[in-house]
Amino acid sequence: MLGGSLAAGVAELTPLTLVSPGAFALVGMGAVFVGIIRTPITSILIIFEMTNDYALILPLMLANMTSYSIARILEPHSVYDAILVANDVHLPSGQDHVLLEELTAGNAMHRQPLMVRPETSVADVAALLDQHASHGVPVVTVDQCLLGIVTLTDVRQALRQELHDKPVAGIASTRHLISVHPDHTLNWVMQQMGAHEVSLIPVLTRGKPERLVGVLTMADIVRAYAQKKME
Hints:
The protein has helices at residues 2-13, 21-37, 40-51, 57-74, 79-86, 94-102, 105-108, 122-132, 152-160, 186-196, 218-230, and strands at residues 136-140, 146-151, 200-204, 212-217. By secondary structure, it is mainly alpha-helical. A hairpin with a 5-residue loop joins strand 1 and strand 2.
């Protein structure tokens, strides 16, 4: 309606100019569509398929990008996003990926992690995991070089076998250990945790020998992401 009215106004002001109210109305329709749905290319394709008129493409592009820019300023989300939010459905956005690429393991890790020595007994480790409600703990040397990871499952299995006094080094996972460095992004860390199906991942220095400087869990990653998003 606005496009048609504008065409009528132009025709009234410049009687010698050939103005097509239908073309103006179509351009206006495309601009409204873009402002609501936020799909500029789709709008151009639909109007072109309706008219098969190449002359409309340039005005459509100008009107669509103007509408798109103004709509994004007034309301960042499209009507479909607004409906999802109203129904308490929150889909991941491109910004989520960017935030996870900006944050590193060093930003999210526990810098004073729970750890045990290899000579610690299975019973003591069980009590420690129970006290801190932890699902696993790294086994380190005196100078904090990582020897392995012992999980709650490992400890429970050892207790069922009545290995209470056995040194934890004997039940810890020591081969093919998955670890990250403080400068690795959280996006990469999450990929490693998912690929290897681990819930706890040690963070090691890049020096030789590599030393444990922290641990990361999925809860740590979520916490760091939420804090960053609220900034």
